[in-house]
Amino acid sequence: MPLLSSPSLPAAAPAPAGAPAPAPVAGGDGPAFSPLYQQIKGLITRSLQAGEWLPGQAIPSEHELAARFRVSQGTVRKAVDELAAENLLVRRQGKGTFVATHAEERTQYRFLRLRADSGATAVLQRRLLDCRRLRAPADVARPLGLKSGDAVVEIRRVLLAEGVPVVLDDIFLPGALFKGLSAERLSDWKGPMYRLFEAEFGVRMIRAEEQIRAVAADAEAAAALALPPGAPLLSVERLSYTYGDKAVELRRGLYRTDGHHYRNALN
After folding, report:
1. What string of DSSP letters covers 39-51?
2. For residues 51 and 202, is the Cβ–Cβ distance under 8 A?
3. Which of 54, 210, 222, 228 is 20 to 30 Å from the Cα of 80, by its Cα?
4. With contact defined as beta carbons under 8 Å apart, do 89 and 59 qualify?
5. C-alpha span between 105 and 101 (Å, rounded)
6. What domains can be seen in the chain, in order of their start residue?
7. What is the spatial distance between Cα 173 and Cα 197, in angstroms, rounded to a whole number?
């Protein structure tokens, strides 16, 4: 598609057949176009979303992608760099670039910011309390983009550090995306839960938003976390998204604050 010309500039030559056309960007006094590497980033993301390359698999080399999209390797490299910075891709020295997966140690707890005051890195254990299908109440349906009464899967679990309960989670998932998810399936799965979601249900969590507030433990939370009623807790409500900025998980967690803290790095 030829670029628009102005009276003072000659028209640009048309792009080669098969190359991405310039994408218009709204705003400003006249037409503008997104950088070429952003267009390539979008095409690669579309392939990830379509499942052309699955979590843990290598994607084609920069040379191969440059030939496929008819752009320079530098353009591809810039697109891949951004996708790696967003944790959609992972570069491995001497091996290539791979689709990120929650199976990797460094990304298993990427969204969990609870840290021990001692600085120790504890391996968290899971205790499943319940897994059931129900009709979504309005306060669950709305953030997930569902209608009240639509089917959702609710998972209730406790996370333990060295045998001590530290997190009580209530997790809500769209029922249409997680058909067949059951307590037995969750109990049998040994890896991270997000890895189960991407490996067996084709749903990958790629980003999340959180709201945090201080609350007092009610009787139910206190019993689950082995605390006295009224003990201070952090309430962390997380909404996780997959490709296309589609919300696919609502998680309401209660975190113990005696011996643990919430840590976030800001750039």
Report:
1. HHHHHHHHHHHTT
2. yes
3. 210
4. yes
5. 9
6. 1-100 (1.10.10.10), 112-262 (3.40.1410.10)
7. 10
Which pair of tokens denotes residue 7?
């009276």
Q: In whole angstroms, what is the distance from residue 8 CA to residue 45 CA? A: 37
How far apart are alpha carbons 56 and 58 in whole angstroms?
Answer: 7
Residue 89: φ, ψ to 5°:
-125, 160
Report the C-alpha gap between 251 and 234 in whole angstroms.
Answer: 13
Tell me: the pLDDT tens digits for 140-165? 999 999 999 999 999 999 999 989 99
Please give the C-alpha separations between residue 91 and each of 84, 96, 162, in angstroms, as whole numbers.
7, 6, 33
Transcribe 119-147 into DSSP letters: ---PPEEEEEEEEEEEEPPHHHHTTTT--
Tokens standing for residue 198 = 């991407």
User: E-assigned strands of 83-187?
Assistant: 89-92, 96-99, 114-116, 124-135, 151-161, 164-174
Can you give the pTM of this predicted structure? Answer: 0.75
Nearest partner of 171 among 233, 230, 112, 232, judged by Cα: 112
